[in-house]
Amino acid sequence: MMKILLFVLFLLSSDWVEAQQLSVQSFQKLENDLSARGSEGRTDQNGDRCAIIKVVTNEKGFVFEPDALGLVGSVDKTSEIWLYVPYGAKRLTIKHPQLGMLRDYVYPERIEKAGVYELILTTGRVETVVHETVNMDYLVIRTDPAEAQVYIDEVYESGTGGVVQKFVPWGKHTYRVEHPLYHTEAGQVEVGSSGKKELAIKLRPAFGSVEINSFPESGAEVYIDGERVGVTPYRGDRLKSGEHRIRVLQPMYQPSEEVVRVRDNETSVVSLELQPNFGVMTFTSDPSCEIWVNNELKGQGSWSGRLNAGSYLLEVRREHHRSFRQTLTVEAGENRTVALGNPVPIYGMLNITSTPGDALIRLNGQEYGRTPALLKDILIGTYTLELSKEGYARESREITIEEGKVLPVNVEMRSGRTYTIQTDHSGDSIYVDGKWVGVSPQKLELSYGVHTIRAERGGQHTEKQLEVTETGRDSVVTLGFGLLSQIRWSSSVTPKQKEILSRLVGNMVKVDGGRFQMGGTSEQGSDVNSDEKPVHEVILSDYYMGKYEVRQSEWEAVMDSNPSSDKSDDLPVERVSWEDCHEFIRRLNTLTGLNFKLPTEAQWEYAARGGKLSKGYKYSGSNDLNEVGWYWENSGYKVLTGKWKMEEVDRNHCRTHSVGQKQPNELGLYDMSGNVFEWCEDWYGDYSSDSQSDPIGAVSGSFRVYRGGSRISEARLCRVSYRLYNAPNRRNSILGFRLVCSFPTFRS
After folding, report:
1. Which CATH superfamily groups domain 135-202?
2. Architecture of domain 495-742
3. Other beta carbons within 10 Å of 157
């Protein structure tokens, strides 16, 4: 017989609760516990792995109050409460409505990233009451596998780790242990005066394995009992014993299936032969022609490949020609070459004259003699007709040749002079009086009078007025592109670097200087922090700022490496420290001859607010963050709502996105709210209430400022006035940067 001891805590009196004090019995680091590094781990706002403090207790109702760094979350476990604590946390307050309070408990050890710690609580004195003797004892059943279900006296009993224990009266009891993939075990056991009764039940497997192959080709889709499970070669373990229907599907082949019997603890091997349902066809035509099969382009000049058995429409196409067509039946297993006919050209004629005559004729850049001329057998279509003659301006116009018709054209040649139009690099599009004339450098004959010369590069343009007079002379006209015109390339720069960095420089946006109120202004809302105050006036000079966050392709072009976690050319670079950014800028300035920098806090906030064009938005470009920024609610697989939770962010794979996908702000700048935080040049420090001109922040400090919010941030962190800071050598996956450049003095 056993005596049952009931432990009654002195919680029964409210007067006792006031006197009750919690205490810590022990606190230690669990060196071999990797929970914080596995799937149950979490990350903090900086993207670092949290530590886990495992509070050992069977009590419920605890309230945990952290220090200023906060808690990322907590999870109730069996006999434990897991606290997710940021790196560097110092102390913890523990409260319980009955057990009392432990105030400002200081951790005896440094809280490290991804560390695991055990905290054991004691809860005061206890009273012991001895009750009467009863005839009962424990029945303990251990199962293999641990997931098996246990029934005692036909009642389901839950357990932990494959162990079920129940306090039962003396006498005989039935048990049953079952699992969907194992044979059920059942029986009777007697519990008596001899003490605790233990049973170890190992279930016999009711499953086997299957290996499925297909030939002559692997990679076929595998279906077991109608459910897709993978591709060949496929191995399926723990398949329930009995008959199963195996089916494999492969494009260009007929389906193949077989019924297989799976036996306990055995592996059944299935090899399914795929019968071809295709022919191998080769089509040939003139190299200038396109081959189309059932309105799908297959190749230029020739094509070889598989086609499913059946009928097809074959076409040979060529611009300005009548297509050749034929039908073809493909049979399974055949291998055939088919020579296709050629399209038939469609012609028209051009009768071209000029005043004066003897002008050189060009159609789409190809010479066709001199005026006057009757040009026969001209393929139908639209052409650019150009006439040129020494001492006259080049004449250009669009003409359309139609089937079987003669197009008459007479051109009046205008007197003019020859000019070479160029930009700071070749390939820029050149326009004269709104018409495209070619790419830089371009030699042109311009008529007397005033002309508008325009050059375009990507989304940028520059133009100037040019007056051509009889007293003038042939000359070179050069157009500049702002910062692009100021580049002085290093002799070491490669063509690939020049291409990528020209795009970076070309995407610098001019920010006209001005004055603004910096800090937590009224539109920033009620959650403005103390370090956003006082609001103060700032006056800034002109500068250039990057339209986009620095991309990974640009970082790699300069640094020959890519530290980012998610890699793609147009994603913003991340996992870069403030010091890394300065090394990038040093190398970039050497390659380009320009003077790039990180923006000051003032430059960053002024630009984020929209500069002189500001409309007073809370975020950069809108009061609706979804319009302009990637943050925790919209950056993952699905839209998240409610209160910010790190576990939700991780589960939803909230990630960075390619730059420039959201709406820009008033200055045409993208992603200044969300995506990645952006380093600024300044030391972190308090604001002054004084008006300042071109401020550079605190004189010294331990931390550098970063701004703008990130892919995992709450909306409040994406406000234009919100400030954060970190050590200059710190790197994480939510921290990148963008560039500024001082306003240049243009060279002639």
Report:
1. Immunoglobulins (2.60.40.10)
2. Alpha-Beta Complex (3.90)
3. 15
Phi, psi of 301 (to 5 degrees): 85, -40
Domain ranges of the chain: 2-129, 135-202, 207-273, 278-344, 346-412, 416-481, 495-742
- Residues 232-277: tens digit of each pLDDT: 999 999 899 999 999 999 999 999 999 999 999 999 999 999 999 9
Phi, psi for residue 605 in degrees, rounded to 5 = -65, -40
pLDDT in tens, 471-506: 655 577 777 667 877 888 999 999 999 999 989 998
How far is 56 from 41, CA to CA, in rounded Å?
A: 18
Query: How much is the mean pLDDT over the chain?
Result: 89
Query: 485 vs 423, 438, 479, CA distance in Å?
Result: 8, 20, 9
CATH architecture of 416-481: Sandwich (2.60)
Query: CATH second-level architecture of 207-273?
Result: Sandwich (2.60)
Query: What is the spatial distance between Cα 168 and Cα 191, in angstroms, rounded to a whole number?
Result: 8
What order do you get walking across the sheet with 234-240 strand by strand? 234-240, 207-215, 267-273
Architecture of domain 278-344: Sandwich (2.60)
Same fold flag, 135-202 and 278-344: yes
For 529, half-sphere exposure in the C-beta direction (CA atoms, 13 angstrom radius) is 12
- Mean pLDDT across the stretch 292-300? 94
| Residue linked to tokens 């799937």 | 39
Q: How far is CA 568 from CA 76, 527, 678, 736, in A?
A: 39, 35, 18, 14
Distance CA 394, CA 417 (A): 9
pLDDT one-digit tens code per residue, 542-594? 999 999 999 999 999 999 999 999 999 999 999 999 999 999 999 999 999 99
Q: How far apart are CA 632 and CA 712, in angstroms?
A: 4
In DSSP terms, which residues pair with 295 in a beta bridge?
none
**Angle CA 129–130–136, to nearest 5:** 130
The predicted structure's pLDDT at residue 425: 66
**What single string gives the DSSP state of each residue in 98-117?**
TTEEEEEEEPSS---TT-EE
CB atoms within 10 A of CB 627: 13
Q: Give the Å distances, CA to CA, from 82 to 46, 116, 384, 588.
A: 20, 10, 75, 47
Could you tell me if 47 and 40 are in contact, meaning their C-beta atoms sit under 8 angstroms apart? Answer: no
- Domain 346-412 of CATH type 2.60.40.10: yes
Element (H, E) at 14: helix 14-19
Residue 297 carries which DSSP code?
A: E
Tell me the Cα Rg of the chain: 39
